[in-house]
């Protein structure tokens, strides 16, 4: 079964690599470089303003670490056909799940390493501990995540609902206590407690597990995990596993009624309905708009707020560009005597409205946060100028380049 899992993992990784080259493209690298660099600079400046022994620093780190522990799920890589073809091999599935558990640890352990390292300056400032104590905190976090994954694996067996619920309650209590001991008292004691709880959960959730495997639950859980992963990838490229849903959204009919039903509005009519009633583009638009708005609420520095706002205006516009190709294989649109140039004009009209709304919301938020009227004027003017430049100059250039 070890070899079987290795083969399945290779297929899974090959499938992911096919999509990840679209996720980690030049635009994403540029965006992340700017965003991470900006946030790092902003974080550094905030730390310089805080006094030594900052009393709220430790509770903030505690909350961040507890949230970070929720990142990463148990990945069984199970497929729907396993319930039929692997059922005779159920006794050997423990070896398969052991390999799956090891694979499931890689991503969350890496994320905890990064988040733990990023929060260490605040820990040092708040508690007075040395940076060398990072190794202790990292071991604590890894042990707690190890235990949480043990519980998630236990949930794949039959009649474990009550046991899983109790185990999660116990895990939360122990995690809060262990991290508190490490942060407020002494990290080494936290490490000892973390090792003990890891041994306890491993023994209870795996070594003494005798229940039969719940195949349907294991397959459903894995399908849901992959669906969430594909939804993220779908922000950057089309994923066949994700099918867009159509929702009526009658409350938006007032917007659609503004588009008159005649030949010159053929593509604008199609693009607007695809954008508003399809969950794919409207969901992406709202998620990026919400994320950008939340970030701007906490940014009081003029140039950083300007950079973040411009970045999200660009991202939203760029992610909506695939609308241009949505109806290129629709036979009726090809047969109908509609000029090709109308597609570009219709897309620009839709993007102009969408990005101006974004610019307006970002301007209102930034105007409430930044201090001076000059800063507000610069930010508001820049947001609207960037939105217009993106639609009038970048969109034609980008679409022509892709043809």
Automatic annotation (TrEMBL):
<protein>
    <submittedName>
        <fullName>ABC-2 type transport system permease</fullName>
    </submittedName>
</protein>
<dbReference type="Pfam" id="PF05975">
    <property type="entry name" value="EcsB"/>
</dbReference>
<feature type="transmembrane region" description="Helical">
    <location>
        <begin position="20"/>
        <end position="42"/>
    </location>
</feature>
<feature type="transmembrane region" description="Helical">
    <location>
        <begin position="54"/>
        <end position="72"/>
    </location>
</feature>
<feature type="transmembrane region" description="Helical">
    <location>
        <begin position="281"/>
        <end position="299"/>
    </location>
</feature>
<feature type="transmembrane region" description="Helical">
    <location>
        <begin position="131"/>
        <end position="151"/>
    </location>
</feature>
<keyword id="KW-1133">Transmembrane helix</keyword>
<feature type="transmembrane region" description="Helical">
    <location>
        <begin position="377"/>
        <end position="397"/>
    </location>
</feature>
<feature type="transmembrane region" description="Helical">
    <location>
        <begin position="350"/>
        <end position="371"/>
    </location>
</feature>
<keyword id="KW-0812">Transmembrane</keyword>
<feature type="transmembrane region" description="Helical">
    <location>
        <begin position="163"/>
        <end position="179"/>
    </location>
</feature>
<feature type="transmembrane region" description="Helical">
    <location>
        <begin position="305"/>
        <end position="324"/>
    </location>
</feature>
<feature type="transmembrane region" description="Helical">
    <location>
        <begin position="103"/>
        <end position="125"/>
    </location>
</feature>
<keyword id="KW-0472">Membrane</keyword>
<dbReference type="InterPro" id="IPR010288">
    <property type="entry name" value="EcsB_ABC"/>
</dbReference>
């Amino acid at each position: 079964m070890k070899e079987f899992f290795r083969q399945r993992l290779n297929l899974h990784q090959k499938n992911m690599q096919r999509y990840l080259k679209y996720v980690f493209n030049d635009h994403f690298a540029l965006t992340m470089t700017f965003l991470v660099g900006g946030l790092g600079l902003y974080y550094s400046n905030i730390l310089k303003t805080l006094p030594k022994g900052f009393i709220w620093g430790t509770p903030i780190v505690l909350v961040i670490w507890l949230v970070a522990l929720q990142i990463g799920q148990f990945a069984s890589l199970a497929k729907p056909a396993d319930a039929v073809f692997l059922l005779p091999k159920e006794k050997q599935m423990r070896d398969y799940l052991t390999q799956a558990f090891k694979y499931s640890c890689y991503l969350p352990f890496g994320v905890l390493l990064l988040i733990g390292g990023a929060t260490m300056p605040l820990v040092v400032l708040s508690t007075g501990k040395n940076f060398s104590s990072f190794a202790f905190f990292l071991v604590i976090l890894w042990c707690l995540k190890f235990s949480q994954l043990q519980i998630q694996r236990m949930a794949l067996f039959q009649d474990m609902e009550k046991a899983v619920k109790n185990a999660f309650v116990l895990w939360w209590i122990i995690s809060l206590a262990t991290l508190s001991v490490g942060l407020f008292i002494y990290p080494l004691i936290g490490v000892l407690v973390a090792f003990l709880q890891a041994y306890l959960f491993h023994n209870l959730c795996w070594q003494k597990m005798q229940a039969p495997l719940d195949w349907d639950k294991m397959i459903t859980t894995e399908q849901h995990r992959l669906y969430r992963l594909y939804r993220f990838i779908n922000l950057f490229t089309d994923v066949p596993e994700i099918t867009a849903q159509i929702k009526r959204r009658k409350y938006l009919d007032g917007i659609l009624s503004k588009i008159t039903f005649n030949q010159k509005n053929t593509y604008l009519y199609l693009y607007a309905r695809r954008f508003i009633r399809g969950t794919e583009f409207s969901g992406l638009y709202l998620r990026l708009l919400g994320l950008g708005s939340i970030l701007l609420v906490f940014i009081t520095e003029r140039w950083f707020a300007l950079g973040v706002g411009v970045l999200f205006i660009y991202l939203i516009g760029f992610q909506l560009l695939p609308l241009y190709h949505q109806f290129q294989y629709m036979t009726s649109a090809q047969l109908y005597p509609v000029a090709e140039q109308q597609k570009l004009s219709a897309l620009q009209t839709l993007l102009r409205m969408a990005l101006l709304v974004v610019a307006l919301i970002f301007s209102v938020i930034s105007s409430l946060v930044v201090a001076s009227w000059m800063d507000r004027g610069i930010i508001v003017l820049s947001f609207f100028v960037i939105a217009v430049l993106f639609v009038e100059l970048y969109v034609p250039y980008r679409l022509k380049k892709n043809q």
